[in-house]
Recover the amino acids of this structure.
């Protein structure tokens, strides 16, 4: 009379029938006679699709997607919709799969048609959210809920390799940028090398100038010491000469003292004069030596000072010239590099603009030819349909419309215009209308017809080409004045 049913944790019981107005959803219930119980499985199911859609630029692509869809359990109204509409079918059946796939494909295609390929590719997250919201709105009427949606990377449709071309474009841009970076690094390296060479030359010139100044100073100090030594030697020599003179004077004095006894008065006076003269000579020589020493010192010192000033000025002038030459060479190299860079950029921009213009013209020309071909194809198909698919009638109509028959007639007229054909009329006088000729056999008539055909044929060949028949074949009679033979 009755049975007691209990649903599992992921199930619901949908009871209909006697005593129930519409549907009773419960986890456990008594099932009486006149009632029907259906078990609703609430477990979500994964649906894998490859949706083929088209962007706003009419570029087709494939969108692989995986949707995890199941009944909405938190709302009783949604669960009632699911029980009414989806419970008679298995969730893995083709009916449910096609229903969910149709909703997802329809919303995805509508959304993709309103977005460009760049927007879809760059805004994958926003595109996924839009698809999720749109599909969820449609699935609400079936009591279904999207638990998870995973949109994979877009895939090219065979014959429309947009993403592969986009990848090639990105690779080429990266390669071109790398070449530009290499050229920029090379330019910086060359400029830096030139700057280092200039700094090296400047520092070398500075060190050479300082070395020359230091060597000049040391040379002047050496000359000063040499003059000082020479002066001291000269003074020492003068002192030695004075000592020698003094010794000689003492010797002469002693000699005079020994001879003083003989010639006291005369020798004493002479020796006193000699001694006085020697002292005076000593003083003169000493003063002369001191004067010569001071003069030599003054000359050498002034010459050393002048040489030192000249060497310093020359070193400063050479350093200044080297600095200016290095600065001029560096400035020239910088300007040359800037000019080459500007020329390269201008040439590249001009070539790019020319290539873009040629490509745009070719695209427009191809679009025009395609549109013209489509229009002509539509026109011909319409004519063929109106003529009952009669290709001969269509051909004749097109030839009449294009004036083909008139052109053929004109060409034929031009071909025979100016010709003056000669017409020869031949008759056979031997033929009669009596019964004897009619009684001849058909075979003989055929042979006679061949022989009757030969004279006109040979005559025509002679008139048109001037050639006569061979002698063994016979000769043609002379034509009469009226042209009848």
């Amino acid at each position: 009379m009755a049975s007691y049913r209990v649903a599992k944790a992921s199930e619901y019981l949908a009871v209909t029938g006697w005593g129930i107005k519409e549907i009773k959803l419960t986890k456990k219930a008594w099932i009486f006679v006149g009632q029907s119980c259906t078990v609703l499985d609430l477990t979500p199911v994964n649906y894998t699709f490859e949706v083929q859609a088209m962007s706003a630029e009419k570029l087709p692509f494939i969108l692989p997607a995986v949707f995890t869809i199941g009944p909405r359990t938190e709302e009783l109204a949604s669960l009632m919709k699911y029980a009414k509409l989806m419970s008679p079918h298995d969730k893995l059946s083709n009916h449910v799969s096609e229903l969910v796939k149709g909703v997802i494909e329809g919303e995805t295609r509508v959304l993709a048609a309103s977005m460009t390929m760049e927007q879809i590719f760059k805004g994958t997250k926003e595109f996924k959210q839009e698809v999720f919201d749109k599909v969820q709105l449609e699935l609400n009427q079936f009591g279904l809920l999207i638990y998870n949606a995973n949109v994979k990377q877009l895939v090219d449709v065979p014959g429309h390799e947009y993403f592969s071309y986009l990848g090639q474009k990105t690779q080429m841009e990266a390669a071109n940028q790398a070449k530009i970076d290499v050229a920029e690094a090379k330019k910086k390296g060359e400029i830096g090398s030139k700057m280092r060479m200039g700094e090296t030359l400047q520092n070398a010139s500075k060190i050479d100038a300082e070395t020359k100044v230091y060597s000049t100073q040391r040379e002047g100090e050496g000359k000063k010491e040499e003059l000082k030594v020479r002066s001291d030697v000269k003074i020492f020599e003068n002192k030695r000469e004075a000592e020698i003179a003094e010794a000689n004077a003492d010797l002469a004095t002693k000699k005079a003292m020994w001879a003083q006894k003989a010639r006291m008065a005369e020798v004493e006076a002479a020796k006193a004069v000699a001694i006085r003269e020697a002292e005076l000579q000593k003083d003169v020589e000493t003063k002369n030596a001191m004067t010569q020493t001071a003069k030599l010192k003054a000359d050498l010192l002034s010459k050393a000072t002048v040489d030192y000033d000249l060497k310093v000025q020359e070193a400063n002038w050479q350093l200044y010239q080297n600095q200016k030459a290095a600065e001029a060479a560096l400035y020239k190299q910088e300007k040359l590099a800037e000019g080459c860079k500007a020329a390269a950029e201008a040439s590249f921009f001009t070539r790019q603009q020319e290539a873009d213009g040629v490509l745009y013209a070719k695209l427009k020309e191809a679009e025009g030819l395609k549109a013209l071909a489509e229009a002509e194809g539509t026109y011909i198909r319409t004519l063929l349909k109106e003529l009952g698919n009669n290709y001969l009638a269509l051909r004749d109509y097109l030839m009449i419309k294009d004036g083909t028959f008139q052109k053929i007639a004109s060409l034929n007229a031009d071909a025979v215009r100016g010709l003056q054909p000669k017409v020869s009329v031949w008759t056979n006088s031997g033929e009669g209308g009596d019964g004897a000729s009619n009684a001849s056999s058909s075979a003989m008539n055929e042979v006679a017809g061949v022989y009757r055909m030969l004279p006109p044929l040979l005559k025509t060949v002679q008139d048109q080409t001037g050639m006569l028949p061979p002698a063994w074949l016979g000769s043609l009679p002379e034509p009469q004045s009226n042209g009848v033979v």
About this structure: The chain has ten helices and nine strands. Residues 429-437, 481-485 have pLDDT under 50 and may be disordered. The CA atoms of residues 44 and 70 lie 4 Å apart. The longest helix spans residues 264-386.
